[in-house]
Amino acid sequence: MKIEIWSDVACPFCYLGERHLALALESFEHRDDVEIVPRAFELDPTAAPHEHRPMVDALAAKFGTTPAQVTAMQRGIADKAHAVGLEFDTTKASVTNTFDAHRLVHLARESGLDRQMLAALMRGYFARGLKAGDVDELVAVATEVGLDEDRVREVLAGDEFADAVRADESKAQSIGVSGVPFFLIDGKYAVSGAQPVETFRSALDEV
């Protein structure tokens, strides 16, 4: 069974949805036969590379609300994340362009570490204030996962895997993905959003 997951490093519901799927797989009889493939999706592809704006301020401006309302919404997501064992504290989080982070996930795929790379990026972003567009911070995460520092810096200095990221995004557009997380099981069964664990388990059983 192949599960493709479109997500963004800076998407809290993707962070939560991935965890719900992982919990569903724990009790799934055929979990050893499941292949999970991360796919890139940028929530804000127009964000300036290497520019980091405080998340609360950026979201308040985007949705025409107040910083206090954004903070309250983040607390609600935090409660859900903590309930399933995830670290979550966005008080230091910043909004930025995530294209390079997605390129590193594709680099990690060459070593079979793409899932670990994505998980480390999300955990860093949502729990530790990772600046997802900062080269040195991305290098630090990648080397912790097990990638070679010189190779990571080489990729970030050029445009390797840019085509792979765009291919993911093009496929998302072609199948009508307008929001993430989006889970496609065996190319035919779709689950959209951070659905409950039970929903993912039902989908696995049905497929």
Automatic annotation (TrEMBL):
Annotated InterPro entries: DSBA-like_thioredoxin_dom, Thioredoxin-like_sf
Residue span(s) of domain DSBA-like thioredoxin: 3-204
UniProt GO MF annotations: oxidoreductase activity
Pfam families listed in its UniProt record: DSBA
Matches recorded under Gene3D superfamilies: Glutaredoxin (3.40.30.10)
Superkingdom of the source species: Bacteria
Designated name of the protein: DsbA family oxidoreductase
Species, as recorded: Knoellia koreensis
